[in-house]
Amino acid sequence: MSITELTLYQQAILLLAGLIALTSFLMLGQSRLVRLVLVFALQGVLLAATTSMVAYVLEFPHLYISAGLTLLLKGILIPIMLYRLIYRMGLHREMDTLENPARVMMGGASLVVFSYYVSLPVVAHSPLVTLNAIAVSLAVVLLGMLLMITRRQAVAHVVGFMSIENGLFFAAVVSTYGMPMVVELGVAADVLVATVVFGVFFFQIRASIDSLNVDRLSKLSEVEK
Amino acid sequence: MIAVVVLLLIPLAGMALLALRGDTPKAGRINVRCNALALAASLWIAIDVLVHGPRLSAGQLLYIDSFNVYLVVLTAFVGLTTSVFSGPYMAHEREIGRLNPRRLRLYYAMYQGFMLAMYLVLTTNNMGVMWVAMEGATLATVLLVSLYRTPESVEAAWKYFILCGVGIAQALFGTVLLYFAAEQKLGIGGDALLWTVLHDNAGALDPAILSLAFVFLLVGYGTKIGLVPLHQWLPDAHSEGPTPMSAILSGLLLNDALYAVVRCKMLVDASLGTHLAGTLMMGFGLLSFLVAALFLHRQTDIKRLFSYSSIEHMGLMTFAFGVGSPWATFAALFHMTTHSLTKSAIFVTVGHAAQLAGTQRMDRIRGLILTQPAIGWGLLIGTLAIAGFPPFGVFASEFLVLVATMHDYPWLTPLLLLGVGLAFAGLFRHLQPMVYGDVPEGQKAIPANLWPVMLHLAMVLWLGLSIPTFLGHWFNQATHLISGAFPQ
């Protein structure tokens, strides 16, 4: 099936899937924390846009609530909180050094290929859109992990963590038209509490190692030092 | 089903109450009372299920059958005895200045919050809500790990949060895939995530999607079980947090995460008709069992030692559930009970021992049996029990696992025996000098409440000598649910 045979809605979903994967790559290559958070907010807004489009076109009114929650949490609240923390901790001028950005990008690209490979048998009998949705969301999850592996700043870890959740939500919205309401609310509550706890942790970590560079959290190990 | 709602409301109310009153001297007693009420509610549920069989709530959100009801009772029981220990323990920690009133309030409120999450994981019928509750359990305990605010504890808590958060996100992906598979057959609607509905229609679900979903679910919930190589958070979180929390983490959280995996396995088995899920669990379980047994030898911190022992036993249970025959399943259920009781008793004793010696380093804990015989004997007997000595219950359950393995996979038996031997040596090389060594100067007995320990160990001993009829009946019913047949 070629792209032009798809309905307008399906094409739009593919476009948004592509954009969301793109934001994940942008985060991977972003060395300034402030911009990292900005791109993360953009990803949240794209996710909310996807959700509300599914809600509108396929007429699932309960998805509007989900879209609103996503926009509020991932697009506005969490980025603002991270911004304020970054400024309060004086991290806005700091650059996180990226080692081997080219290699990380290549790694990211191969993760996307891998995601498509894994998803192929699963969606063998489903339309093209589902394949892309599942593969892209798996890719966003894996790219979030890659982001966490390659960074040292605790803030970047939190962004990676939240972007993993974005990937999961994208899969839930496009392939299953949203989770049941009770689950959706529960997950949103968990994300909210997690954000607050992360905020608390930033202060605890800074109080204990005087920076947010988690590489320095290396006191506990199996080997006696 | 009112009992289940009551069971969930008790810790919720307790959480609110203790968030306000957690710094008063009465807080310990309030905590005990909440847990006692929860135990009463869980017994009420148990009798209800024993008489009427599996129960589904009106909104289909809660479901109780013989598998989860016995875990609910176990959770409530261990929660109660640990809270009995935690009152004086936390009072002592406050006296020596490691805690302030605010942190004490947080501690007590989150104790109840954790219990709430555990009950919800066990009683919910909705796979999505189960995930939410599991994540809630992480959130409730993560700030408790860093309760003492030492650099080590902050590091442990961060590791715990990130690893478990990312790990459990995989389980959410698995849940989404499960929902996706179900919606294709059952149509769009809220019912497709209900375990009962999924189980009834498992045969019709797409096997390709379900096997992928199971991989994600196993990795996700497996992180919480502490399966190697996803176990990194576990020894850190156990060793740096307050001891009552180590007891409930080891005794409850790990069990309930395994419960989640087994629930998923039941769905996947019914859909696939192959042994894929079981094989995966056997592989992960055996690896955890052996690696943890080896790591026991290298430990210097007493709580780390016993947390590796927890990984080892969880590995064995995962393995046994993976084998999947009725006997193996029976043994795994039995082992869940005996391990949970023994390990929480050990952590309570270890907490006292560490307070007595003023350190958790094993090379400085000496002469327990001379300074305070109750603690020394408690640690000795507890360790004997957990190492799998007869006549304790852990021996009986490990023996059953061995027999079941010999029947189905005889070539794996030497590996299991090797692991048991390694673990025994790993525990005793550290234990002997701690219990019998010379008493350091100035070491004095401390006020200790050891009846939870005695009670747990007596129960483990009883289980080792004979399984009471009602418990045997429960295990049989649960085995039938999980493996499809009664153990012959």
In short:
Chain A is an all-alpha fold.
* Low-confidence region ranges of chain A: none
**Structural class, from secondary structure content of chain A?**
mainly alpha
The quaternary organization reads as: heterodimer
Number of strands of chain A: 0
Largest interface: A-B, 52 and 50 residues
Poorly predicted segments of chain B: none
Please tell me what the overall shape of chain B is. Answer: globular
- Helical segment count of chain A: 7
In angstroms, what separates the terminal alpha carbons of chain A?
61 Å
CA radius of gyration of chain B is 21 Å
Helix content of chain B: over 70%
Report the sheet-strand fraction of chain A: under 5%
Q: How much strand content do the residues of chain B show?
A: under 5%
Give the rounded overall mean pLDDT of chain B.
90
The major sheet of chain A is characterized as: none
Domains of chain A, number: 1
Written account of the structure:
The complex is a heterodimer of chains A (225) and B (488). Chain A is mostly helical. Chain A is built from seven helices and no strands. In chain A, helix 2 packs antiparallel against helix 3 and helix 3 packs parallel to helix 7. Chain A starts with 7 loop residues before the first helix and ends in a 16-residue tail after the last helix. The mean pLDDT of chain A is 86. By secondary structure, chain B is mostly helical. Helix content of chain B is 78%, strand content 1%. Chain B has 19 helices and two strands. In chain B, helix 1 (2-21) packs antiparallel against helix 4 (101-123) and helix 3 (66-95) packs antiparallel against helix 10. Chain B starts with a helix and ends in a 5-residue tail after the last helix. The model of chain B has no long low-confidence stretch (mean pLDDT 90). The interface between A and B is large, with 52 and 50 residues.
